[in-house]
Automatic annotation (TrEMBL):
Keyword terms, alphabetized: Membrane, Transmembrane, Transmembrane helix
Bias kind Polar residues: ranges: 354-363
TM region positions: 30-52
Region: Disordered, residue numbers: 351-372
Protein name, UniProt field: Uncharacterized protein
Entry superkingdom: Bacteria
């Protein structure tokens, strides 16, 4: 049988149709594989970006530091690159002489709700801003971070500026105090030790951010917690705490003053030595004088420089004596109340004891024998 030109035999057409059908699934598979490949590459890129943000970015580095503080891991936080002070951070006298007593777990406050709110590069340095709650108080801090080499294919980071700060603390009325419940003695943390003045601020290094509450609770003084938020790296934050005397301490001072005045009354002279009262007569004393106390002063204490002072307080003594007139020789009996005022100062000695100097407002300095 002869076929005309251009007309395919039925067998040839069926073979070509079957070949076309075989090529169609192969092409579909290639397209599908390409799509899957693109999706996988995108997923890997997204996963890499997520891993970078969570583990290897400047924000992740700062978050790591804050997380260590929130977990009380002060020693680990100090080991992060750039946390310890460098020579460039020691331009201030406060930082050079600052105590590191508060860079420990026991002195840390609570730190929660840590959230990075901003990250932006500025040349070789990246600024990371974080919000948080320190001791329940909302705060915000910005940290400067710079790249510090590589960890494999991921960048490593360090603080370009130490996150530590300084609290310059002055506690009036007590050498002993506590910070966030951690007990300290000024004479142990001050750069000059026991030779330092109680009025000289004591600089102490602290982690920022952090809320630091200073309180006093001793046998002689008390002060409720006064807090300060250290939220700026390398900042010098002043804090002045005034303690108040305890009732027990006031009672002890009252007792010592009463004993002192009682001892004064045993002196049979017109002007008892070292005492805040006396009596003057223009005539000759022939008997006495005999002293006694009518009213003891009601002592109150007020802050005064490195210690306390006894506020000027009225009191009354009583004197009896016989005098002979130098003019006509007559003898008269004196039986009289002698009002006077008492004040004084209280200073704490290096061994922790208190020195009480009792005077009267008219005296410019404590008379001999007035200290106890």
């Amino acid at each position: 049988m002869v076929q005309s030109a251009g007309v395919q035999a039925p067998g040839a057409r069926s073979r070509r149709a079957r070949a076309a059908r075989r090529r169609a699934p192969l092409w579909s598979d290639l397209v599908l594989l390409s799509i899957v490949g693109v999706v996988l590459v995108g997923a890997l890129a997204a996963g890499g970006l997520t891993a970078y943000r969570e583990f290897y970015s400047p924000s992740a580095f700062v978050t790591r530091y804050l997380t260590l503080l929130s977990e009380g891991r002060a020693a680990d936080a100090l080991q992060l690159p750039g946390v310890a002070l460098s020579h460039g951070d020691l331009d201030s006298d406060s930082f050079r002489s600052a105590s590191d007593a508060l860079l420990r777990r026991d002195a840390l406050g609570t730190l929660t709700d840590i959230t990075v709110t901003d990250e932006h590069p500025d040349g070789d340095v990246t600024s990371v801003t974080v919000q948080y709650k320190a001791g329940g108080h909302l705060g915000s801090s910005t940290f400067r971070v710079a790249q510090d080499g590589w960890i494999g294919v991921a960048p490593a980071w360090e603080f370009a500026q130490s996150p530590l700060a300084v609290i310059s603390l002055t506690v009036r009325g007590s050498d002993r105090f506590s910070v966030n419940g951690f007990d300290l003695d000024r004479r142990q943390v001050a750069a000059q030790g026991a030779d330092s003045s109680a009025l000289d601020p004591v600089p102490m290094l602290v982690f920022s951010p952090g809320l630091y509450s200073v309180s006093v609770k001793t046998s002689t003084a008390t002060a409720k917690g006064m807090g300060v938020l250290a939220d700026k790296p390398l900042a010098d934050v002043p804090l002045d705490v005034q303690a108040t005397p305890t009732e027990a301490f006031v009672k002890i001072v009252q007792q010592r003053v009463n004993e002192f005045l009682s001892k004064c009354t045993t002196q049979q002279v017109l002007q008892p030595t070292g005492c805040p009262f006396g009596y003057a007569v223009p005539n000759r004393v022939i008997d006495g004088p005999t002293w006694s106390m009518v009213t003891n002063p009601d002592i109150t204490l007020q802050p005064d420089a490195e210690g306390w002072k006894i506020a000027p307080t009225p009191a009354t003594a009583h004197v009896q004596l016989e005098v002979k007139s130098l003019y006509d020789g007559s003898v008269s009996h004196v039986d009289q109340d002698v009002p006077f005022d008492v004040d004084g100062t209280i200073r704490f000695l290096p061994d922790g004891s208190a020195s009480i100097s009792i005077t009267s407002p008219e005296q410019s300095a404590p008379p001999p024998g007035s200290e106890g």
